[in-house]
Design a protein that fits this description.
With 169 residues, this protein is mainly beta. It is elongated and about 50 Å long. It starts with 7 loop residues before the first helix and ends in a 6-residue tail after the last strand.
Length: 169
């Protein structure tokens, strides 16, 4: 995956463009996205170390086109997860034309996740861009500690679609 330097304002401007309704072919379906990020992390005490964080996000598109999301980030130092209802919290996703785009803001920088679908909405692919200014991202790790990250790359992106609500039951 290529690393692209983008300022957070550019990512937010892209995300703020007009959102579209969910495509009919995705109603009542669950989209599962996963990838890993690697790089160098500088702790508040100034010590640096390499890191790998595995990230997953499950997004359910309701029959009304509303998006419900569950995320999880894990690395050797901890595990963080949560749920995001439509229009609430950081990291909301929205449809822009036939793509699903999410922007996750950090204290410095942001992540943009773009999901592209095949014409029948039976498969998908995902592209992840870590946006930063001057090569630095500042965000909380799964253990809740704020780190300064550099050299961040994304590996092993995957995306799948299944019928129904993965959160039901």
């Amino acid at each position: 995956m290529r690393m692209i330097c983008l300022t957070a304002s550019f990512i937010f401007a892209l995300h703020a463009s007009s959102a579209f309704a969910a495509p009919a072919g995705l109603l009542n379906k669950t989209i599962t996205i996963s990838f890993a990020t690697t790089g160098m992390a500088k702790a508040p005490d100034g010590k640096s170390h390499g890191f790998t964080t595995k990230v997953s996000r499950i997004i359910y598109v309701s029959s009304a086109g509303r998006l419900f999301s569950r995320f999880r980030a894990t690395n050797r130092g901890g595990d963080r997860s949560g749920e995001i209802a439509p229009g609430q919290g950081k990291g909301n996703f929205s449809f822009q034309s036939d793509k699903l785009i999410g922007v996750i803001p950090y204290e410095v920088g942001a992540r943009q996740v773009t999901v592209t679908f095949d014409t029948g909405f039976s498969s998908c692919s995902v592209n992840v861009i870590e946006g930063h200014t001057g090569g630095i991202i500042r965000r909380k790790a799964p253990n809740g500690v704020m780190y300064e990250l550099s050299g961040v790359t994304t590996t092993s992106p995957s995306c799948s679609i299944q019928s129904g609500n993965a959160f039901a039951g």
